[in-house]
Amino acid sequence: MKLHEITIIEEVSRCLLCYDPPCSKACPSASDPASFIKAIRLDDRIGGARLTLLNNTLGSICAAACPSSKYCEGACIRGKIDRPVSIKMLHGYVAQLAKDHGLSVRKTDTTEFKAAVFGSDMAGLAAAAALAKNGVDVIVFTDITSLQTQLMIKFADEKIDSVIIDDGIQNLLALGVKFAADKNEVDFSNFDAVLFASKRSLAEFPSLDDLPRVFFTGELVKGPDNAAFSIKKGNAAAKRMLEYFKEADT
Ligand code: SF4
Predict the structure, then answer these.
(1) Which residues line ligand 1 (CB under 6 A)?
(2) How far, CA to CA in Å, does 192 sit from each of 59, 112, 136, 164, 241?
(3) Sheet holding 178-180, edge to edge
(4) Ligand 1 center to residue 53 CA distance, Å?
(5) Residue 107 lies in a domain
(6) Based on the domain organization, do 151 and 200 belong to the same domain?
(7) CATH number for the domain including 21?
(8) Model confidence over 60-88: pLDDT tens digits?
(9) For 210-224, what is each residue's pLDDT tens digit?
(10) Rounded to the nearest whole angstrom, what is the distance from the C-alpha of residue 35 to the centroid of ligand 1?
(11) Pick from 78, 100, 122: which residue ends a domain?
């Protein structure tokens, strides 16, 4: 048995399997760590990997970049006894397992709606993932060839491996999220809604008058610009957009 394997088993064994787990409640990205920890503990590791992918398409990046001591590990009940369960490490483990086993996120619905996303930070990418998962045809207006570099610069302090960033991008592509580099020639009549996920992307549009319904990632949820909380902002914006599409469909 490898040391790494022993560490995984030791850490999941330290989990108290809390009722109404504070770690999951504290997770901004809705990764629900208690569920994948329980799955590993019950030796359903692939199930745990599936869960983490289902809950968070960008889970591999989130696991590497999340300031977990502020969220899941900060809330972990085990921390009151000795030290918190190493949730961030376990999240990285199941995310890697998902990649090693070629697991990919699947769409849960189909729709006729199309959305344009401007701003390729984690909030924009999380919104794109959530929309695509729910069957919306999504185009993120950014140059995909430079996206990996942009994210590596963004998370320079966390020193995230390019392979991890690429894993997140591949998960988006597997969901059908498209990327387009040229934002100057966008025909907005092709879209039912537009999402602005960064102030910089919004600044490139002097007027929003001729655009379809416009949403912003910061309009519903406000908070820090870290990986996990940005995913929360993106998920909230996508939820609002999906409600709007549903209203428009009735
Ligand atoms: S709060 Fe800590 S001990 Fe409780 S379920 Fe989450 S990881 Fe396990």
Answers:
(1) 15-18, 21-23, 34, 37, 76-78, 85, 87
(2) 28, 9, 10, 32, 10
(3) 178-180, 137-141, 114-118, 193-196, 213-216
(4) 20
(5) no
(6) yes
(7) 1.10.1060.10
(8) 999 999 999 999 999 999 999 999 999 99
(9) 788 899 998 888 899
(10) 10
(11) 100
